[in-house]
Structures are given as structure tokens and as C-alpha cells.
Amino acid sequence: MASTLLIFLFTLLIKGYGQCELKDITVGTERTSIQIEGKQEWNVSFINSCKCPQQSLTVSCNGFQSVEKVDPNIFAPVANNNCIVNGGRPIAAFATVWFLYAWDPPFIFVPVSSQVNC
After folding, report:
1. Alpha carbon separation from 101 to 3, 39, 45 (Å, rounded)
2. How far is CA 115 from the centre of its chain?
3. CA angle, corner 42, sides to 36 and 46, nearest 5?
4. Contact at 8 Å (CB) between 81 and 115?
5. SS in 3 state form for 78-114?
6. pTM of the predicted structure, to 2 decimals
7. How far apart are CA 25 and CA 85, in angstroms?
């Protein structure tokens, strides 16, 4: 029994148990009550649900448009039809970074990559 427990714990350590992964970033999009130039405004949230900060978060954004100015320090295009979130700066553990944009229909942002800072 004790040897089984030690093997289990050793396996968890080798596999990096507790490390953050890209799946720990949740993207939420909510409609606001505002319309800008006839387009619906949306609030996009990037939530880091891990105990470690994640930085250099990039999401797919091919075809993204907005009639509302988006702060490039929070969300900006980079190479390969991707956008960088929070200027590449870390998103703290259990923190949220958000921005507003206006367009119809809502855009679906899918996380592509990030770097874990544990």
C-alpha cells in the first residue's frame, strides 16, 4: 500500500501535477445593452482559472472587426490571424482581463497559446 502511494505521488510530480494549461483560460462573451453605429456591443472576458499566472496569451481572431475602438494594450492583432491579449503581460491567477467591441454577429475567440509562470 505504501509503495503504491509513493509511486502515485512520484507519477504526479513527473507529470507536472498542478501546472496550468491552455484549457485553464476561459473566454466569455456577453452582450451589453449598448449599440454603436447600429452594431451590438459585446464584453469579452479572458479568465485565468489556474493558480499560476499565464502570459503571452494568443487567441484566434481571423476576420475580427469592431466599429468601437479596442485598446491595443488589451487586445491587438499579431501574426498568423491571431491576437495577443493583455499586451502579452501576465494574467494573474484567477484574474480576468476584458475588453469591449461592437459588431454583429459576436466573434468566437479560441485560445491558441500561452506561457505558464509557475
Report:
1. 56, 9, 11
2. 11
3. 145
4. no
5. CCCCEEEEHHHCCECCCCEEEEEEECCCCCCCEEEEE
6. 0.82
7. 11
pLDDT tens string, the chain, 118 residues long: the values are 444 333 433 433 434 445 889 999 999 999 999 999 999 999 999 999 999 999 999 999 999 999 999 999 999 999 999 999 999 999 999 999 999 999 999 999 999 999 998 8
Four-point Cα dihedral 44, 49, 23, 117, nearest 10: 110
Cα 25 to Cα 41, 58, 74, 76, 98, distances in angstroms: 22, 11, 16, 18, 13
Residue 101: strand pairing partners: 42
